[in-house]
Write a structure and sequence with these properties.
The protein has about 200 residues and is of the alpha/beta class. It contains 7 helices and 7 strands, in the order ααβαβαββαβααββ. A 7-stranded mixed sheet has the order 3-2-1-4-5-7-6, with helices on both faces.
Amino acid sequence: MRAEDWDERYRAQRQWSSGPNALVAELLGGLLPGDAVDLAAGEGRHALWLAARGWRVTAVDFSDVGLARGRAQPDAGGVTWVTADVSAWDAAASSLDLVLVAYLHLDLPATLAVLDRAVSWLRPGGRLLVLGHDVDNVAHGVGGPQDPAILHSVERLAPVAARLDVDRFEQVRRGTPAGTALDTLLWGRRPAGSAGRPA
């Protein structure tokens, strides 16, 4: 979708979401704060939550309407808000302790390109958390995009996982008011001594 399409979606809905995803909170809640980026941050629910826990967070999204909602929150001062296409935005190599990519859905080549760059932004030991709708959700879950070409799976994200020391890499179930949704989770660390960008 285009930025304009998401701008309209945010204008049409009072609030898309509040508070962090439960699995994101579970995995990140115990980490020592550092430098983080929230890619495809939307209204900034995860960026705000991280900032409240002491993280220095950059929230990146191509919808300025979504980010404006985040910027309007009372505790938004702890977040740097950047309106940009995540497919083009970049950070300095080895500059981050955490990259969070929650429910960003692009075609597979674009997804792999974004995540490949994301790994290079991490300091050794820095963490990447990718969470998104699984391709099996179309047939066996509820909600989410219905185009299989933009959905995640363990198989599809395997090239990214190969660059990490992986803690969890699996299909996970998520309860919703409409039923059970299926997501893909990739949770790992950049190995010590790994190269910044692949050749």
